[in-house]
Specification:
about 250 residues, mainly alpha, about 0% strand, DUF599 domain-containing protein, transmembrane helix, transmembrane
Length: about 250
């Protein structure tokens, strides 16, 4: 029965993680959120960049965004090293844990399962952060290759296509960073598993609630929306919007 509760808690964690990831992706198609709002800001950034002769500030911003991903990626490596080390000293770690005034000591197999799940979460985060870093490298290259404002060979349509393409790469980099950052939240939920499976399930649910409120109901979202006049419909609404009469 105890092992069954452990498996149910793990299944609930996966439902929360994978389910919310899919839900937020679908929900962002027809409702304002941080993700689709920042997408519009990034595209505007690329359009403004094309009108500037000096792009040093733009390159600096891209570099700062890339360094954020590098910081979290390096943190993941340190955490992974600690988890792998702990896996090599499972018995000793369990003995230390048994002296703590909270939690129940599981079997060695369940303990190692908990450590492996935590390991997988940070491996996933590492891949997301490094992919985000690489895409910000792509953005740096595109900023460097952007046509100057006085270039007569590039048509307005070509500039708009370039801005949308660069903005899209920047959006993909931001999305990858966001998924990596979410993994840290879910890792904190996994830490609750070392106390009790019920705590693990409650923490997983709490993480989803916190992520939802920040993504769809936060004051940061209100501030971002207030700072922009939205002339274009949200993604997914263009097809359903009424066409102007001729």
């Amino acid at each position: 029965m105890s092992n069954l509760l452990e498996l149910i808690a793990l299944l609930w964690f996966l439902v929360c993680w994978l389910g919310y990831t899919e839900y937020s992706k679908r929900r962002a198609a027809d409702r304002p959120c941080l993700s689709n709002t920042l997408d519009l800001y990034r595209e505007d950034w690329m359009r403004v960049m094309l009108r500037r002769e000096n792009r040093i500030a733009d390159a600096s911003v891209v570099g700062n965004l890339e360094r954020n991903g590098a910081f979290f990626a390096s943190s993941c490596l340190l955490i992974l090293a600690g988890i792998i080390t702990a896996l090599g000293y499972t018995q000793e770690v369990m003995e230390v844990f048994s002296t703590m005034p909270f939690g129940t000591l599981p079997t060695r197999e369940i303990w190692e399962l908990r450590m492996v799940v935590l390991l997988v979460v940070f491996i996933y985060a590492f891949f997301k952060f490094t992919w985000s870093m690489r895409m910000y490298n792509f953005v740096s290259v595109m900023v460097g290759s952007a046509p100057p404002p006085d270039d007569t060979k590039t048509s307005p349509a070509g500039r708009e296509a370039f801005a949308r393409s660069a903005g899209n790469i920047c959006n993909l980099a931001g999305d990858a960073f966001n998924l990596g950052l979410r993994s840290y939240y879910y890792a904190l939920a996994v830490v609750g598993w070392f106390i009790h499976p019920i705590v693990f399930m409650a923490a997983s649910t709490l993480v989803v609630v916190v992520l939802y409120r920040r993504e769809f109901c936060s004051t940061a979202l209100e501030a971002l929306r207030a700072g922009k006049v939205f002339e274009e419909p949200l993604p997914g609404k263009a097809e359903n919007s009424p066409k102007p009469k001729s």
